[in-house]
Structure formats: C-alpha cells, structure tokens
Design goal:
Elements (H helix, E strand, L loop, with lengths): L12 E5 L13 H6 L5 E5 L10 E4 L9 H10 L3 E2 L2 H8 L3 H7 L8 E3 L12 E5 L9 E3 L2 H13 L4 E5 L8 E7 L2 E8 L23 E3 L4 H18 L8 E7 L6 E6 L12 H21 L11
Parallel strand pairs: 1-2, 1-3, 3-4
Antiparallel strand pairs: 5-8, 6-7, 6-8, 9-10, 9-12, 10-11, 12-13
Helix pairs in contact: 2-3
InterPro entries: DcsG_Biosynth_Enzyme (IPR053191)
Organism: Mycolicibacterium neworleansense
Protein name: Glutathione synthase/ribosomal protein S6 modification protein
C-alpha cells in the first residue's frame, strides 16, 4: 500500500486474538474502523503468531486460551515491543489472587479463600463456588452444595497444577453480574451478564470453540453505588502500579448486587469483552472512538506518534 504521507510514521498495530477466535467474537468488530478514523491501521492476529513480534503495538482483545498456556503467554507478553494493557498488569491480573490485593486496598470484594497447590482446602458451610485461580471464560468453575464434592473438585484442580479459589455462593448472582467498562481510566458504559454457572454439580455450557462459557448479555444502567465499586477498583490498580489512570486503556469490573453492598467479583484487565454490541449505535460509536483515542494516547507515550520517526 502506498502511503499518502511518507514523512508520517504509521505504527504497526495488532489486535490479538487466539487460534480459535483469531478476530474475536464479533464484539470488537468496529475497532478497526475506529482506529482507521484516527489514521491508525491495525489487523487481527492470534497472539502466538510470530508476526506479532514485529508489531509496534499489540492490543490484547481475545486471547482466551491463555490459561491453558500461561507460562508461554506471559513470556510472550514480555517479548512484544509494546503491549496494552502493560505486561506487568497482565501478569498480576491473570491470577485471581489479585482479589487479596484489592481487598487490602479497601475494595469491597466477594469473600474469597485462596489455596495454592498442595495447600489444604477448606470449604465454608452452605453453597460454594470452586474455581481455578488462573482461568478464563469460566473454565473449571462449578457450584456445590456438598462439601465433599467441592473438596473433590478442588483436589482435581490441584492435581492438574491449578491453585484454587473457594467463594460462598451469593444468591444475588441469579440477577446477573453488572459489567462496568472503563476506557482510559474513565467510566464508559455498563452491561449485564446473565448467570453463567448452572445448578450445583454441573459444568457451564461452552460456545462451539470451547474457549468461553455461553453468556446472556443485555444493556445496563447501574446506579452510582455500583459504579463506586468500579472506581475503587480502577483507583486501586493505579495506586498499586503507580501510573496515570489513562494508561489503563481498558478495564472491566464485574460486580454483583445493587445499591446495598455491591461487591467486586472479578477485575478484568487482560482480554475482557467490553460489551460494545450492547450499546445503541451512537453510543457504540462513541465508545469505540474512545477506545481508539486510548490507543492513540498510548502510542504517543511510547514515542510512536505520527511524527516520531521524522528525520530517520
């Protein structure tokens, strides 16, 4: 392709998917045009395609097989030239032990027990959820009312080399999770994720590629009490990693509960679906534009702006 302005630097940008979903699940379909509208050209590649190492900037979007190849994935995040979100945040966020950090920093999180491989697992009374500490798309997560069955599942996860989380089942999840989306550290939009886990003892139903559990999504307009949890989570990350909020190009904070005692269930900083398809056309275009603005700002921070290579 002949460039109209040869004196303007055109960074090579990759949106990273995975082999099963090399261009994501369709929710991000408008991002390429949103970037193009700002003079930025990007293409999709599976994260493990060697060509990603030639990119100037890689944006994680649908790397939903990373949990199966965690060491390889984390090594790759450190090897690409520039990554969104940054590799140090990705490494922290891939292990749900980050919930302990957020709790210590004052974020209201769902009560969680963390058990490393080989550590004795304890299960509280009542219905519980047992899940791997490293996982995506609800793989390995199940509900239990029988403590013996819950322990057996935890032991099976340990036997597979997975640390385990045990959480009391919160009945409010039957109303779904509220997914709060932040772009550039600022409140953007929200959507509802319907209950994923089936009744106790059953595994979630996965979509045809097997990379994530089937989800029922719908628009949402949560109150400020719920948004406050999202702001607390984003602020905690900013303080923990000592950077400006805008450097967190995207974040999704999953919250259960309404105005009374809302609690963070997960903080998604690696490859979250951002629910663009749940927005009206104009709002979707605005959100996609804001995402592109965040990518543009990151390029400037990395010294990859349009005039950064003039004179070379």
């Amino acid at each position: 392709m002949k460039l109209a302005r040869p004196d303007v630097f055109h960074p090579r940008i990759v949106l990273a998917g995975c082999a099963a979903l090399p261009e994501g699940d369709g929710d991000d379909a408008g991002l390429l045009m949103a970037l193009r509208n700002r003079g930025l050209h990007a293409r999709w590649l599976p994260w493990d395609d060697p060509a990603t190492l030639d990119a100037d900037l890689v944006v994680l979007r649908a790397t939903w097989d990373y949990a199966e190849r965690l060491d390889e994935f984390l090594a790759w995040t450190r090897s690409v030239r520039h990554l969104i979100n940054p590799a140090q945040i990705v490494q922290w966020n891939t292990d749900k032990r980050y919930l302990d950090d957020l709790h210590r920093m004052g974020v209201p999180v769902v009560p969680t027990g963390y058990f490393a491989v080989g550590e004795k697992v304890s299960v509280p009374d009542g219905e519980v959820v047992v899940k791997p500490a490293v996982g995506a798309g609800s793989a390995g997560a199940q509900r239990f009312v029988d403590a013996t069955e819950a322990l057996a599942h935890a032991e099976a996860l340990h036997a597979g080399g997975h640390a385990v989380l045990v959480q009391p089942y919160d009945a409010r999840i039957s109303d779904g999770e509220t997914a709060l989306v932040f772009l550039g550290g600022k409140k953007s939009h929200a959507f509802t994720k319907g209950p994923i886990l089936p009744p106790a003892g059953q595994s979630p139903e996965f979509e045809e590629t097997g990379t994530y559990a089937q989800e029922s999504l719908s628009p949402a307009d949560p109150g400020e009490e719920v948004w406050r949890v999202g702001h607390q989570a984003v602020d905690a990350v900013v303080r923990l990693f000592d950077f400006d909020a805008e450097e967190l190009v995207y974040a999704r904070v999953d919250v259960i509960g309404g105005p009374e005692d809302p609690r963070l269930l997960e903080l998604e900083l690696v490859e979250p679906g951002l629910g663009f398809r749940q927005l009206r056309a104009r709002d979707r275009a605005d959100a996609e534009r804001q995402f592109a603005v965040g990518v543009e700002a990151a390029l400037e921070r990395f010294g990859l702006g349009p005039l950064s290579h003039r004179g070379f």
